[in-house]
Design brief:
Layout (H helix, E strand, L loop, with lengths): L29 E2 L11 H12 L12 H11 L6 E4 L1 H13 L2 E6 L4 H8 L3 E6 L8 H8 L4 E7 L11 H10 L3 E5 L20 E6 L12 E5 L1 H7 L10 H12 L5 H19 L5 E2 L6 E5 L4 H10 L2 E2 L1 E2 L8 E5 L3 H15 L4
Parallel strand pairs: 1-11, 3-4, 3-5, 5-6, 6-7
Antiparallel strand pairs: 2-8, 7-8, 9-10, 10-13, 12-13
Helix pairs in contact: 1-8, 2-8, 3-4, 5-6, 9-11, 10-11
This protein binds pyridoxal-5'-phosphate.
């Protein structure tokens, strides 16, 4: 490194305290850390993707507006294509919302870390509004903060990552009525709970519903997210959107997955069934508290420190998520895997927690 060139002095001062998002990549582990769909990608969908790929003009830029995909998403959601934007993962759309609307941004915490990270990157002002002890919204606090005129955005994740609970549409509606800010409801896990705020879109132009194909549809590797909103909101978001944000391959794969979405029904049903089994088994372990979940993961607290449990499990070949931050002390999040993976995880967790369990 040269003596007279120090890139860190060039870094924007407001990024100096930001810790980048990082996910460990470990070989030979049962991977239950990223809320992915654990089942093999459905063969008929894979075949459909390959046949579309065979005829695709890879030398051409992708459709910047992802027109065909948005029409498929419209059929799936019942919301018109002009009210839909597709993104390179829901993550990109979170960043775009913050780049376009920025400013004071309320985040119902504890929750998905990317709202805060993207807020900082976009130069916005993230404000945590803590949830109650059972992780339900603190409606009074959030409406009081939302009605302040400086508030531009409100992020509510439902089912909430990492706590697993759903915010009822009636509560979201109370927040929508309290504010002129945009209220973003992140429904990344909607297919696992079947509740949605989508029916509120018609009468609340300040609602944005965020979704992804990364979880229930098993497309995490291809990065496809979308948001549903009033067409006027979509038009404003165009100003910050990267022109060719969603590549051709991901667009065609997402279309194939949506066209054959019945292929995902059985895997989703199995994940939900396994979730109930895993929840019961975790609750039966002495000293372990497990929080009820409507998603494809479970949050639990153990009598040992989360760091110790996390490291112990990694040493035994199981990777889960070690949670940090207010409200999540000594909590870990495990993704619901296949039956044999869940059994392996439970065995190793008992081992780590000590022979007494
Ligand atoms: C996984 C996840 C996302 C990100 O989805 P991508 O489409 O893979 O970027 C968004 N929100 C929440 C709450 C998630 O858990």
């Amino acid at each position: 490194m040269s003596d007279f060139f120090a890139p860190e002095v060039l870094l924007r001062p407001d990024l100096r305290g930001l810790t980048p998002y990082d996910a460990p990549v470990l070989a030979h582990v049962v991977k239950l850390d990223a809320n992915e769909n654990p089942y093999d990608f459905p063969a008929p969908v894979r075949e459909e993707i390959l046949s579309l790929l065979r005829n695709d003009q890879l030398n051409r830029y992708p459709d910047p507006q992802a027109g065909e995909l948005r029409r498929a998403l419209s059929v799936y959601t019942g919301w018109p294509p002009e009210g839909i934007m597709a993104g390179n993962g829901a993550d990109e759309l979170i960043l775009n919302l913050l780049l376009a609307f920025g400013g004071r941004t309320l985040i119902a915490t504890p929750t998905f870390s990317m709202y805060r990270i993207h807020a900082v990157i976009a130069g916005a002002e993230p404000v945590a509004v803590p949830r109650q002890a059972d992780f339900s919204l603190d409606l009074e606090a959030i409406t009081a903060a939302a009605e302040q005129p400086q508030t531009r955005l409100v992020f509510i994740c439902s089912p909430n990552n990492p706590t697993g609970n759903v915010t009822a549409a009636a509560e979201v509606e109370t927040v929508l009525r309290s504010t002129r800010a945009l209220v973003v409801v992140d429904e990344a896990y909607q297919e696992f709970c079947e509740e949605s705020c989508l029916p509120l879109l018609d009468r609340h132009p300040n609602l944005v519903v965020l979704r992804t194909l990364s979880k229930a549809f098993g497309l995490a590797g291809l990065r496809v997210g979308y948001l549903l909103a009033d067409p006027a909101v979509i038009r404003l978001l165009q100003r910050v959107k990267q022109p060719f944000n969603l590549n051709r391959f991901s667009q065609l794969a997402a279309r194939a997955a949506l066209a054959r979405r019945e292929e995902f029904r059985e895997p989703i049903r199995r994940i939900r069934e396994e979730r109930e089994r895993l929840q019961t088994a975790l609750a039966a372990l002495p000293g372990v508290t497990v929080f009820p979940s409507r998603a494809n993961f479970l949050l639990f607290r153990t009598p040992l420190s989360a760091d110790a449990v996390y490291r112990g499990l990694v040493a035994e070949g199981v990777l889960i998520r070690n949670m940090h931050g207010p409200g999540l002390e000594d909590c870990l999040r495990v993704t619901v895997g296949r039956e044999n993976e869940n059994r392996f995880f439970l065995e190793k967790l008992k081992l780590v927690l000590g022979g007494a369990v």
